Structure formats: structure tokens, C-alpha cells
Amino acid sequence: MSDELATTEETVSADGEYKMSVTAKIDEVGPCKKHVTVTVPRADIDHYYSESVSELGGQATVPGFRVGHVPTKLIEKRFRQELSDQVKQRVLMESLELIAEDNDLDPINEPTIDIESLEIPEDGEFTFEFEVEVRPDFKLPEYKGLKLERPAREIADKDVDEYLTRFLGQYGEMEERKGAAEKEDYLELSIKFEHDGKHLSEIAELVVPLRPVLRLHDAEITNFGELMTGVKTGDTRETEVEVSGEADQIEMRGEKVKALFTVKSVKFIQTPEINEELLERIGAESEEELREEVKNILERQLTYEQRQSTRSQVLDKITESADWDLPETLVSKQVENALRREILEMQQAGFSRQDIQARENELRQKAISTTRQALKEHFVLDKIATTENLEVQPSEIDMEIYYMAMQQGESPRRIRARMVKSGMIENLEAQLRERKAVDVILEKAEYTDVKMKPQEENKISAVARSVCSSFSASAAEEEETEEADEE
């Protein structure tokens, strides 16, 4: 399908600025992808050439002539290449802006144009082509008055006690386990992976808590707890693991791999007593204040869980009709971006690094399908935000950074600097805008409260490693590295 679209034939706009009269032939060449053929009349090229000669003539320094009095022919001869480059840049920039404006193109990425290979002819019109990914064109579904279930539960003293024990663990000392490994002990391991009897990869050193499941970027060892319970230093174990169907290494997707474990040591954390020294280290005035802060974190996590549940229902309902396809190149580019945004939400809710790592590894194992769905949700929410005239204020970004800094025990300045450096500040703004769109939907929804399932114990140990490669840095780990660099 193609359309021949032309701009107005007028050469001067209403505000007196020069307006080009380019034509554009636009073809659909794939999901959300357009092929555009642009034709620029000679009159437009001559206009920008004359402008460039005039501007250069007013600035150029040529021996024997005063600035501003160099003959036009000499300017054209001496600065031929500079003029050619300047005219090409102006023609491309102005024509692209005009085409996007007049033809209602809404690009997602920069158009693919090999600028270096383009040459404007000395005579006649100038034609160039490019492809560009654009936002999908769709009709918004009905998003007001949705019927939703809202999970609810009370935060009990028992919940505070359990979280406080886990929280204090990060201030405890590691001690050697003299007997067999127990649940939640820390195992220092080395792991070798073999495929069809050949060495595939190796993790030379790894320390993980003993839990039922070990989750890597591209696989899960679901019998890890059963396999490793009761091991002692020097023991070896082996098992089979299946590589994720969406692993980075395409040829390994779905393949069975043998994992061989060697236990280097077994340790446990001696939880410290709550005393003045520990409270000062944590930054709390008293044990009561510490417990109150823990309860605040749990309430924030509960809000996150409620929000995720209702958000999931909302997104399922408003994307039911989103049957349009997305280009694979766009999905691939956005995998890491979508991952970072999920991590950002969990950081804002005060989840631990281990919880965040577990979620990251889960997402990486089904990265393509997860990202494709996340992109569809983004486009629908973005359109709702535009329809509702929703914008994010700088003060709202400041407040989110403040909460994150408080939960992570850092200064807001350092959190902001790290987010700017990693590019996550843009993710935060987009995330807040989408959150506002979801809030509009939630404000107009009808709710039925349902009892939330009790929180399960943490069954997953997650590590920033892969079966198919010896090392892979996680988004969470990159943040730790950046943090260490700043210190």
C-alpha cells in the first residue's frame, strides 16, 4: 500500500518563513514501518544554496578581500564542499520535518538514512529514500468504568519480624557451617556446564543462598534446593537444566545442558543483635523507629503488589484488541529498556537486590514476548496520556528520586546522577506518565476487594550469570558497579 502525498505549492508560509514544496511517496513495508521516497524540487535546492552562499560570504576570510566583500563566484569555487554539505544538511532536515508534519508521521526511532552516500545533483530535482519505524495507528479501547478485583491484606507483627530478620542479615557476619548445609545457608560454588558431552561454559566462583530454585539469566535449576540440601565442603552434584526458549544464543534455545556443581564452602549469617551501634549504623534512633520504617517498606510493597495486580487486569483488558504487530528490530532494541523500567519500579517500592535480581532473570528468560507485550501496553497508555493531557512535572521526578534515595540509604543527588548517566531518568519520566494514565483508569474503575494470598517465603536464588556464557552483567549489577565507581 502506498500514498502519494505532496506539500503545499506555496513557497512562503503564513509567518513569512520559507516553506519547501517537496513530495513524499510513502509505502508500508512491514509492521509499524514505512518506506519513504522524497523528491525535492530544484527551486528548493537553489533557495538553500543561495542562503548558504550569502551566509558564508558574510563571514568568509579570503586574502585580498575584506570580510563581507568576497565575490560570490569566488565563494562558490573556494568553499564548494562546505556549501554542498551545508545545503544537503538543510535540505534533509527541513524536508524531513515537513514530511513528518504534513503526513502525520510519528516516528519511534531516527530514520535510516546513509547521509554520506547522498549527493545533491548540480541540475534537476533531488530524490532520496529512507525507512522509519512509526507508532502503531489504532483506536483506543474503552478504558473507563472497568470492573477490577483489588487484593487486600493486613500487615501483621509477624510480617515485620520476618522482614526485619532478613533486613538485619545484611549487617551480619558470615560464619563457617561445620555440618551439612541447611536452608538459607550460603553456598560458595563453582559450576561447569556441558552440552552434548562438550564444555559449554563455566562459573568459577558463585555465592548463593540455599533455596529451592536457582535462577540464571537464561535458565532455571528448579531442583536446586533438593539437590544441594545436606552438602558439605568439597561435595559435588550434577543435574540437567533446559535453556530458556528466548535465550540470547538462538542455537541453544530449548537445549538440555548438564550442570556440574562443586561446593567450595558452606556458610551461614549470624544475625546481629539490635543495639546502639547497629542502630547508628542503620540510621535509626531506636528499635521502635526501625520497626516502623520496616512497616512503611512493607506497606509500600503491598501498594506495589496491589497496583501490579490491578494494573495487570487493566492492561489485559485494554490490550485485548491490540492485535497489531511490532517490528522485531524495535522489540529487540527495547528489551533492555523494558527491563530497566521494571527494575526501576521495584527499586521505588523498596524491594531487595535479591528480589530484583530474581525478577530480572525471570524477565530475561522470556525477554522477547515480555517486551512485545510491554511495548503494546506502552503505546496504549501513551495514547491515553495524550488523550487525557497528562504531563509529568519536574517536582514529581524529584519526589520519586527522594523516595528511592531514602529506601536505598543514599543521597538524592547520587541517585539522580547515576540515573542520568545510565539513561534511566528518561525511563522514570515515561514510567510516571504511564502511571498517571493507569491512575486515570483506576479512578474510574469499579472494584471488588478480594483476600490477597499470604506472602510465600522466598524460594528463588537469582544470580547475574548465564548457562550459555561465562559472564553476563545484569542491569542491577551494572548499577552496583556504577555506584562503586562513584565512591
UniProtKB/TrEMBL annotation:
InterPro entries xrefs: PPIase_dom_sf, Trig_fac, Trigger_fac_C, Trigger_fac_C_sf, Trigger_fac_ribosome-bd_bac, Trigger_fac_ribosome-bd_sf, Trigger_fact/SurA_dom_sf
Keyword Cell division set for record: yes
Occurrences of domain Trigger factor ribosome-binding bacterial (ranges): 25-166
Domain Trigger factor C-terminal: 288-443
Entry superkingdom: Bacteria
Pfam annotation, one family: Trigger_N
Record bears the keyword Chaperone: yes
Keyword terms: Cell cycle, Cell division, Chaperone, Cytoplasm, Isomerase, Rotamase
The protein's Enzyme Commission number: 5.2.1.8
Any GO MF annotation of the entry: peptidyl-prolyl cis-trans isomerase activity
UniProt catalytic activity: [protein]-peptidylproline (omega=180) = [protein]-peptidylproline (omega=0)
Coiled-coil portions: none
Entry's localization field: Cytoplasm
Entries under PANTHER family matching the protein: TRIGGER FACTOR CHAPERONE AND PEPTIDYL-PROLYL CIS/TRANS ISOMERASE, TRIGGER FACTOR-LIKE PROTEIN TIG, CHLOROPLASTIC
Family of the protein in this entry: Belongs to the FKBP-type PPIase family. Tig subfamily.
UniProt free text on domains: Consists of 3 domains; the N-terminus binds the ribosome, the middle domain has PPIase activity, while the C-terminus has intrinsic chaperone activity on its own.
Purpose: Involved in protein export. Acts as a chaperone by maintaining the newly synthesized protein in an open conformation. Functions as a peptidyl-prolyl cis-trans isomerase.
Protein's name according to its UniProt entry: Trigger factor
Organism of this sequence: Gimesia maris
